[in-house]
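Model it.
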Amino acid sequence: MRKILFIFGQLTDGDVSWLATVGRRKRIAAGAVLIEEGVPVEILYIVLSGELTVTQGKLRRPIARLGAGEVVGEMSFIDARPPSATVSAVGEAVVYAVGKQRLQQELEANAPFAARFYKAVATFLSDRVRMALGADAGGELDGNVLDNLDRAGARFDALGKQLLDG
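Modeled.
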């Protein structure tokens, strides 16, 4: 859930509304592969419900489990390299899929949105590295993120309700 809080905490209500109109809700069957390691991905996903597993290598060594509020495909979006892991549904899941091309067009056309979006991604990637290195032993969120936490959670809840009910 941390990723979406970072993103929605930086974005405006208008930004989130725009995201809600350009993507699509997608049901993922249990065991289905959403992202394959080494295979370019053209979609950025937000997990609305269910659980995904992240595995790596030919033996598909598990490295993470992701639930509602997680974002998938962001690393490949940022650096345009193929995914470094495979992401599969543990059970049935629902994701919100935003095409990379459409998102990129909006980022290029709307500089304020781009600044907010990239700041959000940089913030959660920084948080991920700090946690992996043990530099953030308490696991506490940055004060700037905490200021927007309630708003971010409300935005995600509203988006999820709109998309799951729609």
